[in-house]
């Protein structure tokens, strides 16, 4: 579904990604782990063209979508690949319902009635129907992040990218967001998740990729990564994050 070929990303003289090659397959949950500053979030942002690679190619469904392509290609890529950020990014002046129905109306040209019907269905699934007329400032962080997830779902993406979706939350709010993500995984949604939640990676991930210094040092099943990692740097990272 998504493929990165020899992707390099530079900011000035700083090379953040170093010839990344990876594929994301339909129905797969890929979990990206690694130390802060290793390039995980930058890697994620290449996948839906929030940032263009300095060199290399990004392909979606076999078609090259990076580089000098028509704006229509970029727009369609953004429609296919949704993203959930650390900081929720809800419109503060819109109610919960307005936040959810805005993009389907503007981008997908759905009627307000159609977008509203689907939004209420999504809100019901996460138990937040009563918050439909509330503004983001009145919600907890966990509630805002769940709204952000279903706002992305309202666009019917083929893939959802998550950039450390629980890192800005208080510990007691983390589980309610992870529950929504686990349910999405069970439903067959293709997901790429950057996270420090190792329990989630173990339980839900089909594949875990360890990124360090702008490179994918190792990728395998959760069991092999967490119990039988081949790379010394992977073993060192896991020992520190799990046991300290």
Automatic annotation (TrEMBL):
GO terms for cellular component: plasma membrane. Its main location: membrane. SMART domains: AAA. The keyword Transport applies. SUPFAM superfamilies: P-loop containing nucleoside triphosphate hydrolases. It holds the Pfam family ABC_tran. Residues 2-238 form the ABC transporter domain. Signal peptide: none annotated. It is found in: Cell membrane. Transmembrane segments: none annotated. GO terms for molecular function: ABC-type amino acid transporter activity; ATP binding; ATP hydrolysis activity. It is a peripheral membrane protein. The keyword rRNA-binding does not apply. CDD domains: ABC_HisP_GlnQ. Coiled coil: none annotated. Keywords: Amino-acid transport, ATP-binding, Cell membrane, Membrane, Nucleotide-binding, Transport. Belongs to the ABC transporter superfamily. This is Amino acid ABC transporter ATP-binding protein. It comes from Secundilactobacillus mixtipabuli.
